[in-house]
Design goal:
By secondary structure, the chain is mainly beta. The chain is 8% helix and 40% strand. The chain has a 6-stranded antiparallel barrel with strand order 1-2-11-10-7-12.
């Protein structure tokens, strides 16, 4: 396993492949991350690298965060996340990471919060089919029966019903990096990614 980065979604556009095919892509503004903690099997029971990102003035950092970040440097960061890796000793505290940790054509997993769509019914939320639309059916978009009567006498947990749609953490597997702009710290990834513009994304390489 290798280290990744965090970034923010810029938006979507399209590029043209060599054969003239239009390919939908998403642009991601990668954050410059700093190694803020090195976890090993001896100290934490697993190998991982904690990275901090979204630089902020020290005056806006809480004292517990400030004490933690002082071990790796003098900069203040708002967020932290970690990546499990095989060899944590290849990194140093305070080391800065950018898009150069990735390569063109590399496969990555993208994790982020999906767009919230509010309270939705069965058809929209779970892709259920509707009832007959003929006159007198009285069942167009109703949920129908949700359980038996006296046995079990309750609704089983996890029953697919109306409720909150979206606004949850999802992962897009095996997205491909098509282009890297090192001077601007921008990644161009194939396909759509979770969330709206400026949504925070975790970009982890696929090993």
């Amino acid at each position: 396993m290798s280290i990744g980065l965090f970034g923010r979604k810029i938006g979507m556009t399209q590029i043209f492949a060599d054969d003239g095919t239009a390919v939908s892509v998403t642009l991601v503004q990668a954050e410059t991350c700093q190694v803020s903690q090195i976890k090993t099997v001896d100290t934490d029971s697993y190998n991982a690298i904690q990275v901090s990102f979204a630089e902020q003035p020290l005056s806006k950092i809480t004292k517990p965060q400030l004490g933690h970040l002082k071990k790796s440097g003098t900069k203040g960061f708002k967020y932290s996340g970690e990546f499990q890796i095989d060899d944590p000793n290849s990194y140093k505290l305070g080391q800065m990471l950018d898009v150069n940790v990735f390569s063109t054509g590399q496969k990555v997993d993208i994790t982020g919060k999906s767009i919230g769509k509010g309270f939705a019914g069965n058809q929209k939320r779970h892709n259920f089919s509707r009832g007959p639309m003929t006159h007198g059916s009285k069942n167009h978009r109703l949920p129908g029966s949700i359980g038996a009567g006296s046995t079990p006498g309750r609704v089983y947990p996890g029953k697919k019903m109306a409720g909150q749609l979206g606004n949850k953490m999802i992962t897009i597997k095996n997205s491909e990096i098509l282009f890297i702009s090192a001077p601007e710290n921008i990644l161009v990834l194939k396909g759509s990614l979770p969330g709206k513009k400026d949504n925070l994304l975790r970009i982890a390489p696929v090993d």
